[in-house]
Amino acid sequence: MSAAVTAVGMRYAAGWEWISALLFGALIAATDPVSVVATFKEAGVHSRISLLVETESLLNDGTAAVAFAVVLTAAVGRSPTVSGIAGTLAFTVAGGILCGALVVGVILLLARRTGDNLIEMTLSTVVAYGSFLIAEHFHFSGVLATLTAGILVGNLGLRQARAARIREAIAAYWEYLGFLANSFVFIGIGVQVSLQNFKSVLLPAIMAILLVLLGRACAVYPCCALFGRSELRVQGKHQFVLFWGGLRGALALALAVGLPDWVPNRETIISVTFAVVAFSIFVQGLSMTPLLRHIGEIAPPNKGLSS
Fold first, then answer.
1. Contacts of 229 by beta carbon, 8 Å cutoff, 6+ apart
2. Tens digits of per-residue pLDDT, 74-107?
3. What is the pLDDT of residue 289?
4. How high is the pLDDT of residue 80?
5. Buried (b) or exposed (e) across 247-259, using 16+ Cβ within 10 A?
6. How far apart are CA 70 and CA 9, in angstroms?
7. What's the maximum distance between 2 C-alpha atoms anywhere in the chain?
8. Predicted model pTM
9. What is 2-294's CATH number?
10. What radius of gyration, in Å, describes the C-alpha atoms of the chain?
11. What is the pLDDT of residue 218?
């Protein structure tokens, strides 16, 4: 929904060609709420909203990456059809999930033969990168392969670990790698943003920011409304956190920079993507702590955490 709203808006509001609008809509739909999750952890927010933000981002990234690949593949084809796009989507998704599951199956068999935490860490690294590389080699979705592998390892591998120290070591290892990767990502974003000439794309950038926010609202609120009368109902204040916490980041930038040279408005798409990412990080991200205080998820300074 978010990608569709953004794509249609950029097509008619900014005058982009359909292929440019669709690619931008797909790549900018990927959320990356790293700073939001970091804020949750720092403030000690362990309520349901933290789980919702992390889970939604996890699934959203894989979906957006696959949608981007499908649109790009369809654009390369001479006469893309609905059935052809659907077939490509099914092939990419199913293949990625299968690759991730197969790699995890092999690694878990090896992991049962060792109790060394260093070997366990190495095997978990092989799972993450091996599943991605194998899936990409066969033209499946590497993102979904790694996502599947991570879910299976987290729910099966860590539970099968025979010692608590191994589970703690692996969790700490990946937490550090995540911190390191995110640090480099934000440094890179800062450097690239400082080099961008936003004056030349000011109007498309403003349009894109507004459309991304509109698309996010169209995706969050209707989905939450579906569960409004069930036990899975999401509170109104949490819905707004989901809406405002849908930051864009590393994945959107990586997809934008990786666009082929033949894509119309390629340089404009890259600059506009950087503008949207900069807005989401510096405006939405930095305002998240005051927002959480306002809705009562965290206590005011020097008053401890809310119960």
1. none
2. 777 655 566 766 777 788 888 989 999 999 988 8
3. 83
4. 57
5. bbbbbbbebbeeb
6. 20
7. 63
8. 0.76
9. 1.20.1530.20
10. 20
11. 92
